[in-house]
């Protein structure tokens, strides 16, 4: 598998597929190549784009140089964009959407940015996530209990019912989730307090000057759709799209045509 090196010397594993304009895809929490919706999205887009998927630091075949800082993950995106020729389209899903926004805001050379359902909590339509959520993840990991950290993320962060979370511990994917549980605080840092139930700060991503697209699913929870609508209003000139019938677990065949239309050079 090919690799590239980030600014702090961290090795990043990535996959390149297809041909055409460069497009970099950014994963959400606990995802990495071989265990991510971005794999299927890349396959759907490979006939029109050169698509780059990669393991975010601390996951899969990528390193995890410490201490962690959001700026290091921004530099990781910059390294992938450099590998892609110096400029690329950028797509992020879930917390990876927050990273895509941050990378574009901080000056990574991208020509267009699309995001799917960054999990911002901007009103009272669900219980907000405060400092105690981050502290509970840290405590579980410090105590050597990665499975407990995953359960906290699924139950408190995502809001899944307790019986469903309990069943997840019996599934074949559970060991994979535990192996990357130590990266959950990284995703909390990327949220930058935007899960507190308060409106997004005006001009928060003012450095993002490329055309942008905010997408959500028509069957996703009210709180998540409210966050996407608020984000679209926050970004200058952003387009807001809703995919009928889709949830946070979006189907690649529903999402890919929208991305292809948006990222195709005009």
Written description of the protein model:
By secondary structure, the chain is an alpha/beta fold. Helix content is 39%, strand content 17%. It has helices at residues 37-45, 70-83, 95-105, 131-142, 146-158, 162-168, 174-179, 184-191, 222-234, 252-263; strands spanning 3-5, 11-18, 22-26, 50-54, 88-93, 110-116, 212-217, 239-243. Strands 1-2-4-3-5-6-7-8 form an 8-stranded mixed beta sheet, sandwiched between helices.
- Major sheet: order of its strands? 1-2-4-3-5-6-7-8
- Taking the alpha carbons of the first and last residues, their distance comes to 33 Å
- The tally of beta strands, per DSSP, is 8
Major beta sheet summary: 8 strands, mixed
Percent of residues in β-strands: 15-25%
Unreliable runs: none
Rounded mean pLDDT is 97
Spell the H/E element sequence.
EEEHEHEHEHHHHHEHEH
Radius of gyration: 17 Å
- Figure out the total of helices: 10
Q: Structural class, please?
A: alpha/beta
Report the helical percentage.
Answer: 25-40%
Shape: globular
Give a quick rundown of the structure.
With 266 residues, this protein is α/β, with parallel strands linked by helices.
List descriptors.
39% helix; 10 helices; alpha/beta
Question: Which helices and strands appear, and what pairs or packs with what?
Answer:
Blueprint: E1 3-5, E2 11-18, E3 22-26, H1 37-45, E4 50-54, H2 70-83, E5 88-93, H3 95-105, E6 110-116, H4 131-142, H5 146-158, H6 162-168, H7 174-179, H8 184-191, E7 212-217, H9 222-234, E8 239-243, H10 252-263
Parallel strand pairs: 3-4, 3-5, 5-6, 6-7, 7-8
Antiparallel strand pairs: 1-2, 2-4
Helix pairs in contact: 1-10, 2-3, 3-8, 4-5
């Amino acid at each position: 598998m090919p690799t590239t090196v980030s600014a702090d010397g961290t090795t990043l594993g990535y996959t390149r597929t297809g041909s055409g304009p460069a497009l970099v895809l950014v994963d959400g929490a606990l995802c990495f190549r071989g265990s991510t919706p971005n794999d299927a999205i890349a396959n759907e887009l490979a006939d029109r784009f050169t698509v780059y998927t990669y393991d975010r630091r601390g996951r899969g075949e990528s390193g995890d140089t410490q201490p962690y800082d959001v700026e290091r993950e921004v530099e990781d995106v910059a390294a992938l964009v450099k590998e892609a020729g110096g400029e690329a389209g950028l797509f992020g899903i879930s917390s990876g959407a927050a990273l895509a926004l941050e990378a574009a805001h901080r000056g990574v050379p991208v020509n267009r940015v699309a995001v799917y359902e960054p999990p911002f909590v901007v009103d009272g339509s669900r219980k907000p996530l405060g400092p105690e959520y981050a502290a509970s993840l840290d405590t579980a990991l410090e105590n050597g209990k990665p499975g407990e950290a995953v359960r906290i993320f699924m139950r408190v962060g995502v809001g899944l019912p307790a019986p469903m979370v309990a069943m997840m511990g019996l599934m074949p994917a559970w060991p994979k989730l535990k192996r990357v549980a130590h990266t959950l605080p990284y995703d909390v840092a990327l949220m930058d307090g935007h899960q507190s139930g308060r409106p997004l700060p005006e001009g928060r991503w003012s450095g993002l000057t490329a055309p942008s697209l905010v997408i959500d699913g028509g069957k996703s929870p009210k709180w998540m759709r409210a966050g996407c609508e608020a984000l679209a209003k926050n970004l200058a000139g952003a387009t807001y799209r809703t995919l009928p019938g889709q949830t946070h677990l979006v189907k690649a065949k529903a999402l890919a045509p929208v991305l292809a239309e948006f990222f195709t050079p005009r």
